[in-house]
Each structure stands twice: as C-alpha cells, then as structure tokens.
Amino acid sequence: MTGKKVLLILILIMTIFAIHAVKNKSKRDTFTSGNGCFCKLQGEVDDCSCKVESLDSLNNRMIYPRMKSLLSKDYFRYFKVNLNKECPFWADDSRCAMRNCAVNVCSEEQLPDGLKAQTEQHDENNDEAQKDCDGEDLGYLNTTISEEREKAFQNWTKYDDAQETFCEMDDDTSPDMKYVDLLLNPEKYTGYKGESPHRIWNSIYNENCFKAPEQPAYNPQALSDYSLEGLCLEKRAFYRMVSGLHTSINIHLCHNYLFPASTCYGKEEWGLNLEEFQQRFDHAQTDGRGPQWLKNLYFTYLVELRALAKAAPYFEEEGFFTGDEEEDADVKQGVQDLLSVIKEFPEQFDESKLFKGNKKVARALKREFRDHFLNISRIMDCVGCDKCKLWGKLQVQGMGTALKILFSGDGMGPQSIVKAGSKNKFQLRRTEIVSLFNAFGRLSSSIHAIEEFRRLLR
Prior knowledge:
By secondary structure, this protein is mainly α. It has helices at residues 3-35, 52-70, 74-77, 147-160, 195-208, 233-255, 274-281, 290-310, 312-317, 325-344, 359-379, 386-407, 430-457; strands at 78-82, 177-181, 257-259, 269-271. The chain has a two-stranded antiparallel sheet. The longest helix has 33 residues, at 3-35. The relative contact order is 0.17.
C-alpha cells in the first residue's frame, strides 16, 4: 500500500471520528439544554417556606394518584358551564373551527341521576344536533333542573351575595348552561394558536397583573416577561398564581400534544412532545425565564393546597350527591382520605401574611386584587377555542374558589374552621367545588408530568 493511500485512509478515519464527535456534542448540548429546564426546581418556593423537593414527593407519591381516582368519579367529571357567553372586551372574531377545539356536551340520559332534570324540554331546532358524548360533533343538552336542585341553587345564590367572590360565575339558570363530561373532553393541544391566544395572555399580564411603572410590556411570543422587583408580597403572589396557571396549561399542551399526520405514519397521534417542552421552558431557549415559570407552578399548587386544607371541615360534611349511593359514599371516603394527607403536610402556604398593615390600605389592595382576578375570569369568555375556553374557565374558577376560601368573610381568619351551614354562612356551589378539585388536579398532573419530562431528559 502506497503512502498516499495510507494518508487517504487516515484522513477518512479522522473525518469519521470528527463527524461522530460533532454528533455526540450535539447530543450533550441537547441533554444540557434539556436539564436547563429544571435548574430552579430545587430549594424553597419563592415567598414560601416549603421546598420544591417536598412538594414533588407529596404530590407524586400521595396526591396525584388520589386525585386521578377522585376526578374519574361522576361528581367531579361533570362540569356545568356556559361556553356561549360573549367576550365583554373585544369582538370575538377568531373562533377556532378545528374539530379538536370542539367540546362534546352530554345528553340528559348520560348524566348521573342526581344531575338529571325531572322534566324534558327539547328545542326543535337542536334535535338534529344531539349526539352521544363520544361523538366528534357538538351536542345539545337539555338544561332543565329538578325542583330539588332549583331550591338548592336558590339557597346557594342567597349566600353568594354575602361572599367576597373572586371569580365571575356563570348563571346557573341560563339556558346556555350545559353539562360537559371532562373525561371525554380532556385538556390537550388543539392547534389553537396565533393572534387570538396571544391577545388573551397579553390582556391578562399587561392589563390585569400588577407591575412596576417602568416595567416593559408583556411579550406574547415569550410567554410572560416580568420582573417582580419592587412589588409587594400581594402583587408578587398574584403574578405567581397567574404564571403558575399559565405554566400548568403549557405543560398539559406539551404532555398531550397532537403530532401531525406526516410524522406519524399517515395519521395524527397524541403524545408527549419533549422538544415542545424544552422550547417553552429551557433556560437557554427562554432567555433564562423558563425555569422560573416552572417554579411558579409550585407556588400556585401551594395556594390551592392550602385552600383545600382550610376548607377541609366544610368538605368533610359535604354529601357529594349524584344519586348513586354507593359511588357517593366512595367519593366522600376518597375526599376524606385526600384531605387527611393534605392536612398532615406541615409546610402550608400562609395566607395570613397577605393584606396586613394599615387596614384602609390593606382593604383597598384586597379590592384591587379581587377586581383584577374578576377581570381575568371574564377574559376567559374571549377564548376562541371551546375546549381551551372550557378548561380556562374551569381552572380560573377553581383558583377563584381557592381565593374565596382563603380571603372571604369576616369570620374567615387563617385558622378559622370552615363548616357547611356555619353561622358565617360560608357556602360553595357545586360548580365551585368541582372546579376547585379539578383545577388542583390539573396542577397536580402538571407536577407529575414534570417528573416524566425530567426522566426522559436524563
């Protein structure tokens, strides 16, 4: 073999090694970039004494499996909601026409006995549109309410006026109120994107979150773009709750992502999208903000965990009625089991630190806090995708219910026992209970999903 041939072979071998080195570097960079999502998921949650590691352990071992079981029960899976309310802030000109945006409502025959109406009223114009819950088309629901439930709604409404409600509630008597089976309409990626959702989040962050005057406007392309420097505890808490909810929603979209037909052997498929998760939360790809957004999820989780703990005496007296005695008993027992775990957790969020100091200033700040959150609940009616609107309304209402538990009523101090029918007349509607448990369930599933993404990136 001539020297020239040997030289060529050596050059070829070196080239092959160089190519492999570049590929391995790319893999290492991807790994490092991926783990950059989790660089802040350690130590204490901001403005709390609880550690991220404690919440991971509590949630993934104790809370998540219990919530998953509970939310499959009839009491929690059927949510009554009005998806036809008009946007109060701008013309709703960006409706999502894709089938994945559609919500399948339930016919009365598919509801538990406790939720069924005793009389039937059919709209002839909608008869042809009535479909099974497992169909792809939008369905019509008979919305008549039994006499027993009417009386309950009237009693609840009486109490509502005395409460400091943090969320705008749908009118239970509206003909547009329909029951939706949440298990048949899961929160997932629908393809709803572009100007419409950007306008939603822009309005939430720029017009309703608190910020310093010199702070730049929110950038929809980069999720939230906020500095909390100079803000008081209450205003920081407000932002972190909203950011945590936003983070949770984005995790669900990544965890249940629709892959187009071209990448899945000719058909669409749902699955976990690791690349999308990194794009939304990786340190390098979000200018360092993504890991903090993930940490804000834990703050929101702690707030709703505390609300469940504080209202435990109330929920322990709740019947969770659907008409199925055996399942109702199982739900009651399951709720009590969940609450026993939550109450034993020592590092609860401390709402007593909020709205302190000068009483006049504190009352004004609390009123501003409440008004901003009410606005956010109204913005949910501007969402152009029905499935996104459903889960947006439910999760914002759940958070609003948590705030109502933590801060409403004169007799609702941090250590007060909240009981159904107690003299302070604190009361929750069924829809508030359903939304609170489901909203907390969404946060719980997000923290569980983070562990899945973490394992994959390892």
